[in-house]
Amino acid sequence: MFKLIKYEMMKLFSKKSLMIFLALLCCVNMGVFIYTQNLDQTISISAYQKLQTKLDQIPNEKRYIFVETEYEKYNAFEVIEQLITLRIHPQDNQFMIESLLNDYPDVEKKYGELYQQDHTPYYTDYLESDVQFLSHIIDEFEVLYQYPQYIQDIQDKAKTLSGISIFQHDNNSFEQKNIVKTAEDYQKLQNIKLTYTSEKGIVEALSFPITNFFIMLAMMILAMRIIIDEKEKKLFSIIKLTARGQHQIMLSKIITLICSVSIIVFLMAGSQLFYSSMTYGLGDLTRSIQSLASFSSYPYALNVFQFLMLCLLIKCFAACVIGLFMIEMAILCQNKITLLLGTTFFLIIEYILYLVIPSLSSFFIMKYFNVITVLQTDTLFQLYRNINFLSNPLSMHIFIIIGFLIIFLILIIINCFTYRYRRNMSLQSLDISFFYFKRYPSLSLIKQEFYKVFVIQKVWILCFLCIGIQFYQYHDLSVYLDSDTQIYQAYMKSLEGPLTQEKEEYILQEQKNYEQLHSQLMNINEKESQGIITKAQAIRMKDDIEQQLLGENVFQKIYDQYQDIKIHPQKQFVFNQAYQQFFLETSWTMMPTLLLFVMIIIGLSSCMTYDYQNQMHHVTQSTLKGNHKLLIMKFGIMNVICLLFYMFVTIPPLILLHQTYGFSSLDASITSLPAFSSFPVWMSIGVGCFLSLLLRFYAVICLGLIIQGIAVKTRNYLMTLFVSLFLFLVPLLLAYGGFDLLNSISLYPLLFHGQLIETTGGLFQILFSIIGYSMLFFLSLKYIFNNYKPQNI
After folding, report:
1. Most C-beta atoms within 10 A of its C-beta, which of 2, 314, 607, 784?
2. Is residue 63 within 8 Å of residue 52, measured between CB atoms?
3. Which of 282, 316, 306, 304 is nearest to 212 (CA)?
4. Per-residue pLDDT tens over the stretch 456-497
5. pTM of the shown model
């Protein structure tokens, strides 16, 4: 038996294509997890790291008070900032000002001086984001702070209900037993120690839903490889005649599946936990699981490490049940399409039940006794509930685990018996000609190439996946504007465009107003020193004036711009925030660029290699139009793919930035933007934006053509994929991480040129990258034309 298991394992793991696919699946899962964790630009991962650093320096019993104080302080800062913004136009905003002052009557008195000293956000880039972040943390800590009272309320509720006459008359009723069991379950947790630490890392790793999809996809592939491959080769007719070709061989295949599933689950979930530990931090793994607010209702005394192991084992268990079901379907089905449709239909029904049935419905057991729920272990363990089992309360967790264990054993028995008594163990082709009208293939070579790339090689799926990711990222994303930005934007609505006499008079009048305010402050100080007014009167008068001076820093920026325009009349007033964010900052462009690279590399790696791996190049390259003319068509398709993905990742952030800031003054000289002051005066901002987008697209085209050169060299899809990822994605990430030496070989200067244009050295880097990649472009083009030619058969 052990030898059979060993041979089955060797047979499965010796298939290089399967191992590469599973490894790629784990990498994609990890990549998508990292990508989604970095989507939130308002509350970054560093906020949790900063908070944890502070919490580590504070005793556990004082952490709740500390977070509560931090939240109150930054919330007060945000209120003061809103009041400052509203007081720019006090008559229009009088109602909102009064409403804020009614809600926070002493906010300026209590936090005004502290706001003046330093109101810089600590955890994020904006005060609103700090408040939102601390609000999430205080909600978590509030659950822990109230936990002892929560346990006591359960005990009190049990005593109260037990004393009601309706329950006293029937001590054997399910309701009475349920009350007693609930109180007993939580009574054991009365003295449990709670540790105040953010649960973000653990919850994000456990609740990531895409991992479950990849696990089910892996199960489907493994079931097909374990059963379908041998069906295709008609080996079962021979295997079943051998001495151990009945139950033993089936059990060995099942054990192989269970081991493979466990490895995949632990790799995927373990890698997520590892990333969370390196970014958010997992905290002390020996603390109680009730220290995580999301699992505070869990009724068993486990520490976090034990709970994580339990979650991984349950996830493996659920995945094994799905795998056993797929093996049964693979044994019964006589073609792959029926197998795929049957398993997909089953999983869709389970998912619909999981989504549609409410938690408090009388059919709730169909929601929770469900492979999707068990696979999504965090949902299962966040709920405490007892079910009526023969008029006795039974923990739903125990009921589900025992029930799935029974199903697990039954499926193993069914698999063995079905395999033994199933006579026809071969695959048959499925005739589906009835479902479509007969069509004649197009004789157009370009149409055939488009069909081969977009339909057969599934590039259309990548297009929809890219659109879906971008929609998920940007459909509900809002950009926070701090008070300085809002004041600056308000000024620019009046001043935008060339300097006129009216604008100059307005600026000088504003400058005069601020000078008068400063002189009033000096007069108040003199009167206070001379004893004309009391200290309290002086403070009150100075507070009023200082409130009016809060926008002075922003106006100083306007005034400096005015002075610069007086010296250089060709410049104009421009609200440059949108240009600053998209063309100079990497926070808006890095993640879309990584998505762009991954999609292009995956999509184009098969464009050339498909013919080689199917031996079609011997035919196509020997025809009249199958050499250079076909190459030109492939290059055209490559450009279309590059353009599509470039549009998918570029347009959504541009739309969001336009809605938030607006791309105004496109006809103004580009020298109006401080970072572009060394550029020619005749160049407009619109032309500069177009050239920037064009330079990025040029980098994408270079990437696409070099991938084609690698494909012609390797003639293997997976090799092209891995070589391209290593040559382009890894140097880009390292250059972004601060390894400036890699700027000379990576596409970083072309894609993020905004960071380099302010210095002469940076401009030379961009120029050398253009020259260098142009040379690589033409060398790749020459290599492809020289080597893509008829081969000797």
Report:
1. 607
2. no
3. 316
4. 777 888 888 888 878 777 766 667 676 777 778 888 888 888
5. 0.63
